[in-house]
Specification:
The chain is α+β, with helices and mostly antiparallel strands. The protein has a single domain, classed as Electron Transport, Fmn-binding Protein, Chain A (Pnp Oxidase, Chain A, Roll). It is 30% helix and 26% strand. The chain contains six helices and eight strands. Strands 1, 2, 3, 4, 5, 6, 7 and 8 form an eight-stranded antiparallel beta sheet that branches. It starts with 5 loop residues before the first strand and ends in a 9-residue tail after the last strand.
Length: 243
């Protein structure tokens, strides 16, 4: 079996892609461009069905769902950016939402403009529906996330440097300047109660854009998730012809 691309933290390319994709998305929203699917924020999340008296056997031992899972600021930055997001939301709450988009985007840019603000060992998100994924996590505190998307600038492939010799424009193998990126994150997962500092940050992040078009409004978020990265595997497509 191929060794993990990274253990204990996100590799630099993965972290940079998650941060730059967020910046691009919110800037396009601010500029009034048509919204697109936000793949860097919506990985497939896999949890494991535990056999027991109620479920002694299943042909389908995994549950898959798409959840909003993103980067988490470093410990020393967490409170600062939580306060910044909460203040931005409070200061713009009484005005028409569309008129405050620039102020809210500027708050997010302050964090995402510098990838070193983030802890490469952590990811997090909010639980909305309290369904099968939450039930599984309570029984087995591990999860796998699959991210997949595209980069718009040439980048070295994660583990296939020979590929660039024949395809200088990235792993897509064409001249449009698009590189495909995909990686699997395996990690332990902690369920966050509402009084947790990480839950507070995740909620503040969500509330900044709660009523923008790309979100489906939710009245409540009963729990949060904090995922501690244990290993990252490269899943990016590449051309076998380059061998």
């Amino acid at each position: 079996m191929k060794e993990p691309l990274s253990t204990g933290k996100l590799p630099e390319r993965s972290l940079n892609w998650l941060a730059s994709s967020r910046l691009k998305f919110i800037n396009e929203m601010r500029d009034g461009k048509s919204l697109r699917y936000f793949s860097a924020h919506l990985p497939v999340m896999i949890t494991w069905v535990e056999g027991g008296e109620s479920e002694p056997y299943t042909k389908y031992p995994v549950n898959m769902t798409v959840k909003g899972i993103g980067l988490i600021p470093k410990t020393g930055q967490l409170e600062h950016f939580t306060n910044l997001f909460e203040s931005a939301a409070a200061n713009t709450k009484s005005r028409p939402h569309i008129e405050t988009i620039r102020e809210r985007v500027e708050a997010v840019e302050a964090l995402y403009n510098d990838p070193s603000n983030f802890d490469p060992a952590l990811l997090g998100g909010l639980e909305i529906f309290s369904g099968k994924a939450l039930q599984n996590v309570k029984n087995n505190g591990h999860t796998s996330l699959l991210y997949v998307g595209m980069e718009e600038s040439p980048a070295q492939p994660m583990q296939h440097p020979h590929n660039m010799a024949q395809h200088p424009h990235g792993m897509g193998g064409h001249g449009g300047g698009i590189s495909y990126i995909s990686f699997q994150v395996n990690g332990s997962i902690e369920i966050l109660e509402k009084d947790n500092v990480y839950y507070r940050y995740l909620l503040a992040s969500r509330k900044l854009f709660e009523f923008d078009k790309f979100h489906i409004f939710q009245p409540d978020y009963p729990f949060g998730y904090l995922i501690k990265v244990e290993e990252v595997h490269d899943k990016s497509p590449w051309s076998r012809a380059a061998k």
